[in-house]
Design goal:
The chain has 13 helices and twelve strands. By secondary structure, it is of the alpha/beta class. The chain has two domains: 112 residues, Aspartate Aminotransferase, domain 1, CATH 3.90.1150; 211 residues, Aspartate Aminotransferase, domain 2 (3-Layer(aba) Sandwich). The structure holds 4'-deoxy-4'-aminopyridoxal-5'-phosphate (PMP). 4'-deoxy-4'-aminopyridoxal-5'-phosphate (PMP) binds next to helix 4.
Length: 353
């Protein structure tokens, strides 16, 4: 029997959202915060064209995409680091600090990958419970020790959709030593409409120990191609690039991301439509009697406690896959209006049962 690292025995596997089908064949996947839209024709064309070069390795530096991002956000190209999805960039970040004794702080509950990546990289997770479904930044600052190497702030937070506002973020960052990296995970940034939520990029411009994590998976609709990026000061981006597996971002993904940046106006109109649906879904749920925190992402969070799995089961019977967190609540992505209506009907029926 080969011997594996002991940590693998205790690490739960990452649970990805799965589609479900109702008895009469309906299926709406609202469990992975994906874009409900089909790919844009211009992006499909770019991918088809890139596919003609699939017998060659991709550009390891993803030069065109890196430059397109640098131009889009008005940052030096040296401040951009790419990965195969932002979860891979997060993994690379853990690799940059991962040595025994190092501590990484994050809120809990938050993105499920953080504890897995922490365990894999050998760092110690310091989980700080949410307060009212929101990052408890004072407690997170209190948790800093001389061993703290990195802090994740997921803004908006997955799975609650809640945000950290500008003043509280500034007060928090003022308490973080300069040798601790703060990663603002902004996977859902494009869905934020609250003007009081600072754009992480303006924070990074002021503070070299703050880096921003973004993805093409959500607003840009490229979840299946796996491309995400970090924008951070040169030493941070350079460290992340060093931990990248060679050729991690394939050239279909690179081409699709470049084409998506070129088609950004069209994609952001879709985001506006999702935001409208999000607000409609939340208001309808509240009218049904559920408690749903204000969400700035492309999903809603319903705290259900012991009823969580029953709720998810009732949705599944209607062909709606949601993401349950047993004993806590369910995260439900915003889909197209038909999917949302099907979900809302299932939620109402569960409420009245
Ligand atoms: N960060 C957060 C907060 C997320 O919710 C997700 C996806 N669920 C990711 C990062 C990773 O997304 P991707 O790897 O597709 O870029």
């Amino acid at each position: 029997m080969p011997r594996f690292r002991a940590i693998l025995d205790t690490m739960p596997a990452y649970k990805a959202g799965k589609a479900v089908v109702s008895a009469d064949g309906r299926s709406h996947k609202l469990s992975s915060n994906e874009s409900p839209y089909d790919p844009l024709p211009s992006v499909l064309e770019a991918v088809a064209s890139a596919a003609t070069r699939m017998h060659r390795y991709p550009d390891p530096a993803a030069t065109e995409l890196t430059e397109a991002l640098a131009e889009r956000y008005d940052v030096p190209a040296e401040h951009v680091a790419l990965g195969a999805g932002s979860v891979t960039v997060a993994q690379q970040l853990f690799e940059t600090v991962g040595e025994p004794g190092a501590e990484v702080i994050y809120a809990w509950r938050s993105f499920e990958a953080y504890p897995l990546l922490a365990d894999l990289s050998g760092v110690t997770s310091v989980r700080v419970p949410l307060l009212d479904e929101t990052h408890h930044l004072d407690a997170m600052a209190d948790a800093i020790t001389p061993n703290t190497r990195m802090i994740f702030v997921c803004n908006p937070n997955n799975p609650t959709g809640t945000v950290v506002r500008s003043a509280e973020l500034t007060a928090f960052l003022d308490r973080v030593p300069e040798n601790v990296l703060v990663v603002l995970d902004e996977a859902y940034r494009e869905y934020v409409r609250d003007a009081d939520v600072v754009d992480g990029l303006s924070v990074y411009r002021e503070r070299p120990n703050v880096a921003v994590l973004r993805t093409f998976s959500k607003a840009y609709g490229l979840a299946g191609l796996r491309v995400g990026y970090l924008i951070g000061a040169e030493p941070v981006a350079a460290a992340v690039r060093k931990t990248m597996v060679p050729f991690a971002v394939n050239h279909l993904a690179q081409a699709a991301a470049v084409a998506s940046l070129a088609a950004e106006d069209e994609l952001l109109e879709r985001v506006d439509a999702v935001v409208k649906e999000r607000d409609r879904v939340r208001e309808t749920l509240i009218a049904q009697g559920w408690t749903v925190p204000v969400t700035e992402a492309n999903f809603v969070w319903i705290r259900l406690g012991e009823r969580t799995l029953d709720f998810a089961g009732a949705c599944a019977a209607e062909g709606v896959a949601v993401r349950p967190f047993a004993g806590e609540g369910a995260r439900v992505s915003i889909g197209d209006p038909e999917a949302n209506d099907t979900f809302l009907a299932a939620a109402a029926a569960f409420r009245n049962a």
